[in-house]
Amino acid sequence: MYQDLLEKKKILAVIGLGYAGLPIALEFAKKIKVIGFDINAERINMMRNKIDPSQELGTSDFEGCEIEFTDDLDVLRKANFFIVAVPTPVDEHNVPNLIPVTQASESIGKVIKKGDYVVYESTVYPGCTEEDCVPIIEKLSGLKMTDDYMIGYSPERINPGDKEHTISTIIKVVSGCCTKSLDTIAQVYELVVKAGVYKASSIKVAEAAKIIENTQRDLNIALMNELSIIFDKMNINTYEVLEAAGTKWNFLRFQPGLAGGHCISDDPYYLTYKSKKIGYDSQVILAGRYINDAMAAHVARKILQHIIETNGNVKEAKILVMGATFKENVSDIRNSKVADVIKELKSFSLNVHISDPYANSKELKYEYGFELTPEIANDYDAVLVAVSHDNYKNLDEVYFASITKKNGLVADLKGIYRNKITSRKYWSL
Known about the structure:
- There is one protein chain.
- Strand 2, helix 3 (41-48) and strand 3 form a beta-alpha-beta unit.
- This protein is 40% helix and 14% strand.
- The protein folds into 2 domains: 2-201, Rossmann fold; 226-427, Rossmann fold (3-Layer(aba) Sandwich), CATH 3.40.50.
- It has an 8-stranded mixed beta sheet with strand order 3-2-1-4-5-6-7-8, with helices on both faces. Strands 10-9-11-12-13 form a 5-stranded parallel beta sheet.
- The termini are far apart.
- It has helices at 2-6, 21-29, 41-48, 73-76, 99-111, 128-141, 179-190, 203-233, 238-245, 267-277, 284-293, 295-310, 337-347, 361-368, 390-393, 397-403, and strands at 12-15, 34-37, 67-70, 81-84, 117-120, 150-153, 172-176, 197-199, 318-322, 351-355, 380-385, 404-412, 425-427.
- By secondary structure, it is α/β, with parallel strands linked by helices.
């Protein structure tokens, strides 16, 4: 398989061309023939015109790539090595939504041939690849894993907005259903991953490794958030505490904040879901999730408290929220916890304006029901800097004074204006 891919006698396909799938597809397309498959025809047309719908990649990233973008199963049928990189979200009850990954498995089941390889990159709970995806492929294809085709799992490690830790510079965990498949899958990924690969002992181990990467981050952020609530009641600045504690060589440098996005806030629920299925009710992991999910309400209440203390009429109060994406310097709004803060603020009948240099107003309207404000006013009762975009970091006290009332509040979740705001009330996590 490896040699045939290298000689372009066989084709690699990436199914799901989002923030994880498109970069890996383009990297491979610089070395071998690639099919980029996605069920969204509009996105396919954008990529054919060298436009990344996620706005992470530029036109130049498409240059020199031998890739065919399609939403046609007949085109996908030409492939021999399939990589699945579809999203795996949770529903409104925090239950894993496997529809994208099962639909991708159905597509593969319809086109797979003897000798082909399938590697899943989507975040799932341990056992999902072999217990949920393989039966779908085999039912539709009539083929048997290991005997007729090979299965593997290699978790994506894409970090949106990060230009340093990219596909080629991050060690890639790989796994396979047998020794032969593991070696071949490792060889294929080594084509594009300069940092090298790590061969996990089994598919389940690789799946579990991905889950705990983000679960660990979620728990550490939850600890910081709980500390920030405690220190706030003591009138201690959390960031000053963290700076002091950070002088110790082994102190872990996490910060409080809104833990959103499509990894940190979703992945732990995949593990706790599977845990419950096998008879164990998670305690620590779910406690961390509870704390992080409650931070939006905590932030909104702090702003409301200021409004009540300084403005007699809550319904006339006006708030500006700066930043709506799930993290700094990206356009991705999926699972943005800023939306939860805005929802909470509006539930108090506050007038909320929203600005963001990266977010798309139409996407915000479709996803969350609110739009970006065309023009920033000059009489806000409070300004919430929710996302630390680079565009915001050079703003100074003069700017905030120009858009707020004299008794206005600057709520700075990431502490980027600490010790820089004196003419307005200042608060941070």
